[in-house]
Here is the input.
Amino acid sequence: MKKIITICILTIVTFLAFAQASFAISPSPTPVVSKIEEQINNLKDRIASRVAQLNLVEKRGILGTITDISETQFTITDMSGNNRLVDVDELTKFSTPSSQKSFGISDLSKGTVVGVVGLYNKDSRRLLARFVDVQNMPKVYSGGILSINKTSFTFTFATVKSDTITVSVEDVTKTLSYTKAGGLVRSGFSKLSVAQRVVVVGFPDIHDKNTILASRVIIFPDIPANPKIPLVKPEDIAPITSTGSGKKLTPITK
Here is the structure.
């Protein structure tokens, strides 16, 4: 009798346990997209958008002359004659070799030659400047010699536009002479003469805008100066009378 009662009790307990387990394991509806999948999809979209932006932007440098300027942007004409729009922001750094003081976009002006490095947007075709450096570019002048100062190693010459410019011949200046027979050869300051045709390559003196610090001086002894330039010919220079010997001395021009 006890065995029968025990078996019945075990049967009832086992039935109740399975019944509870079956209710606990009842399936629940599964969501279409889980939170993890949503985060992965959002990350993919952000990466794709960033890649598209990076494909539109590249680092680029431009050298040119400023033709228009405002508080936040300026336009430059590059060496090929193309106009480029340049934007500046609070991260843009400016520099100039002629000044050690604080320098910014307000110090730039039309006609200034600058080198710009920044981020170029292929879509808008604008350059967001990161560095703007004022370039001290050499200038080239052609004209005829008016006078020579052998003490200070300078000479003045006039251009076709009637501009009178003083040229300072420095230790680093290379003086060359070109003739049809000999070609281009090394020369010197002593070979300069009045009314001679010359080409000067140099930089403006920061202390005197009318003086050029020459890096190259090329003499053309076989080619007369442009007739439009009013020059004093060597034979027109009045002789200088010396004191003591009574002889008339003519200035040495060669």
Observations:
- The helical segments are 2-24, 35-56.
- The chain is about 20% helix and 45% strand.
- The longest helix spans residues 2-24.
